[in-house]
Structure formats: structure tokens, C-alpha cells
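the two lines:
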Amino acid sequence: MISRLIDGVPRRALVLLGLLLAGLLVAPLVVDAYILSILILVLYFAYTGQAWNVMMGFAGQLSLGHSLYVGIAAYTAAALYVHFGIGPWAGVLPAIAISMAAGLVIGFLAFRFGISGVYFALLTIAFAEFTRVGFDHFAWVNGSGGFFLPVTQQAASDPLNLRGSPTMFYYILLAVTVLAFLFCRWLLTGRIGYYWLAIREEPEAAQTLGINVFRYKMIAVAISSGMTALSGVFFAFYYNNLFPEQIFSMSRSIELILGPIIGGVGSLFGPILGAFVLTALAEVVTEIMHALGYEIPGIKQVFYGICLLAVIIYLPHGIWPPLRKRLGLEDRS
Amino acid sequence: MPTELVFTVALQGILTGLVYGLMALGLSVIFGVVRVVNFAHGEMMTIASYGAIVAFGAWNIDPLVAMVPIAVILFALGYAMQAALINPFINRPEHSQFILLAAVAIIMVNGLLMIFGPDARSVLVDYSLDSIEIGPLLVDKVRVITATMALAITAALFAFFKLSHTGKAIRACADNHLGALVIGLNVKQLYALTFGIGSACVGAAGAMMTLLIDTTPNIGPVFTLQAFVIVIIGGLGSMPGALLGGVLIGLSEAMSGLFFAPSAKTMFGVAILILVLLFRPQGLLGRKA
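prediction for all of em together
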């Protein structure tokens, strides 16, 4: 099984990945709190982008409503913690289950009724919006007033309850991101990865070859929504406050998918690279604006938008595929 | 609850819905022909709204008059967007097109935020508070006027597509892209023209909308979503469908505001959308693909 993960990967790629991982492992020891918070954001987007990529990049189903899975998982784990004292490590299981169930319901309805492409994307937005307004009026989690987790000052980190320092959150998230990366590599190199590839490229031909297209699309949705749920639980316990207006919003869904699209849809390293590039870009733009003394609200996002436009126009497949070629890291398998 | 109140609110909702319909019509025309979903649609409407607000604030021009130059400007904007940005993306995958237009939308929302700030603005003309008696019902004058104009513009557009040479050429592109190329139509130019026409619709709707609602930069994405909901309910690419969808959404918003919480109004629209997508994906008045 391990050999399947590294078969065909150039040695240079393994070395570079090892260096990157080593760098990320020692980072908290050398960087200040501000940079650490940015690295947490990078890993968050890298992980969530990876999860979205399973559905879009692997199986070809464009979801623009992934904030739904982040949101319901975040609310589930937070509500279990606040109302029943159930810790996040136990709460993550029902959170994943509920997110997966939501994904499967949407997938079932869409795929059974033959909805695909733009219509599928709009259906995912519609479900996320529906849930957002629903949570706005859901009194058990305080509706639109926001749901808050108790924040206590603690001397030591308490990983069992996910209460503690940013460094603890950082290492947990790093572990999750690495595992997700390996898991996706495992999926892609297995039978299911090839099925998805066939479904993504030629759904009708895949069907003709005897692939149960419906079932494998459903599996992609289940894996993607389940993985996304984990980032929702993390979000709840890291930020300690949840507002339906924010967590379920369409702009949050867009934010999640920019990384993998800019990095390279369907590639394994694309979501990670995209998360680094986009987060760094946002920070650099903020710094420049600050240095120039332009503190006008909105100016940062305008520059961000222009950079996005430039990438999507000039690098149609994202940054990673051409960069991979340049570095000579093409997969030989 | 008195029956007159229910009917009044329903009628107001239907009238507002016709303006929504005009806004969504722009999206429908663009998707029906170019096959690109304009994710910056609501943002373009907001630009038009701010145009009307500026024209009224600076020169005291009634939004119903300013509507004409604003529609022309939006036409130019749409034409330029299609010609410069979207035409090269016609054969790109959907997610690429989506990011392209999402980036345009981000620039538009935040550009407006930079210029106008986050505060809500509206236009108060001297007839803003007048109402018209229709039998026992009392409806806002502005709603009657804007709804009538929305209907008139839709009718004109309908005539353009049915009767004019250019309109027929555009429909040919929509029906059979390859065929249109074969008979020598300049498809890219017609696409740009279509995007311009769709943008002019949303421009006119945006100018009128200043009489009905408060404008902030952030309503852009809300109306983008609103336009999707309306167009899918009515049937993507169907012109009467867009109006019908607009009326249904206007009505459902008004009714949910009356019987439930006003903040829940979008939920009903989205619920209708989900039902339509599942049981009649081509929309109420759409043709089966």
C-alpha cells in the first residue's frame, strides 16, 4: 500500500515534499504569532481545497456550495460541545456523518434526476443558501445572533477539547492536511481514481464500460463532504464563533475553491500550492496598501480580484501543472 | 388578517417581481445564447443603481429618465466584457468561466465599496410616497410605474428577437452554434451584442430598483443569486419564463414577509428553486434540452 503512494513519483519530488514538510514542522519554532496565524489559514485552505478537489478535480462535479458542509459540521460539533459537553474528538464523528448525509442527499437528488454542469453547481448554491437562512432562524444555536463557544484562559493546551494555543491548532491541522494529501494520492492511484477519471472525462463512455457512474459520483460526494466536515469542526473550535451569515455564505464557498482552481484542479499538489499563493497574495496586498497609506475599504479585494483574473486568463490549468513541468516533477506512472 | 391587506401585499409583490424579472431577463438572454452563467449579474445591477443614485444626487435626474443613458452605458460595459474577457473563455471548462466572472464580481463589489462606502443609499423622488387606488387596494405609485416599464422593455426585447434581422441571427447562434458559424454569422460579435443587451436590461432594472429598495455595494451578490433563482424557475433562456419567475419570487417574498419573518423570504425562493430543479429542471416555461 505504501509503495502505491510513491510509485512513479520522481525522487526529486519526494525530496522537495520532504523539505516542505520539514519546513512546516519547524515553522512554529521560528516564526512569530502573526505568521503562524497566516500559516494556519494556509493549511486550512489547503485541506479544504483538497476536499473540494475530490469532487470537482477527481470526479468532475462542480460544487459551489461547500460552505454548507463546513457550516453544518461546525454547528454540529459546536452545539454538541456547548449543549451536552461532548468534546470535539467525539463530536467530529456525528459532524462528519451529518455533512456526509447532506452531501449524499444533494448528490442523490441531483444525479438521480440527471442534473449536471451549471445546474448542479446552482443546486449546490441553492442548498447552501437554504441552510443559511434556516440557521438564521434556528433558535437552538441562537439563529442569526451567532453561536459562541466558551473561551477560557488556560495555562496549558488541552488537545482533548481542542482548547489551546495556536501552535497546537497548527500541528493538528498540519497532520490532517498531510493525511488528506496521502489519502487523495491513495484514491487517485487506485481503481476508484481511474473510474473517476473516466467519469470526469466521458461519463457516457464510462457508463458503457460498465462503471456504475451514479455510485462513484455518490462516493466522491460522500468523501468530499466528509473531509470538508473536518475543516468545519476545526473552524468552530479555532474561531469560537459561528454566524450563519458568514459560514454558509456563497463568498465562503468561493473562497474555498479559489485555491485549488488557481493551484490546478485535479492535481494533488494544486490545492496546497493555491492556498499558499492566494493567502500570501492577500497578505502582500494588505502590506503594500498599508505601506502606501491607502486604507480604503475594498481596495485590497479589488487587487485580489485583478490578480485572480490574471491567473485564470494566462494560466488556464492553474499554476501547478506548468510549474511541475518546469521543475521536471512529472509523475512517471 | 384582512383580505384587502393580503391582496395589497400580493399585488405589491407581483409588481416588484416584474422588475426582478427584467433584471433576471438579462441573465437569461446571456445564458440562453452565450451559454455562460454571468456570476457578476447582480454586481452589474448595483453599478447601474449607483449610476442612478449619482445622477439623482448630482443633477436631480429622475431614475426613470437616467435609466436610458445608464442602460446604454451598461450595454457598452457588457459588450466590452464579452469581447475582451469572455469570448476567449467560450470553450474553457465551466469552472474556469465561473472563476473569471467571480473575479469580475469581486472587483465590481469592492470597487463600489471603495467609491461609495458601505452605507445604504436610496432615491427619494417627490412621488415616492404616492399611492394609486385600484378598487379596494392601495398600491405604491412607483411600483406600478416600474412594473409597467419592465413589461414594456420586455415586450420590446421580445419583438427585437422575433422580428429584427439581428435578433434572428442571435437566436440562430443560440440554437446551433456550428450552423451559425457555417452560414457565416460573426458569432463572437453577436455574443458580445447579446451580452450587451442582457447588461442593458439589468442596467434599466438597476436604475428602477433605486426607487424600490436601498442600495449598498453588498446587495450585488444577493441579486446575482436572486437572478439565478428566477431564471431557473422560469426556464433558462425563456423570456416569458424570466418574467414569470420574477413574479413568483416577488410574490413569495411578499407573502413570506407577511405570514412569516421578512428575513426568511429568500428561503422560500430557494425552496421553489430546489423543487423546480428536481422535478422540472428545464424550468416552468423552458423547453427540454
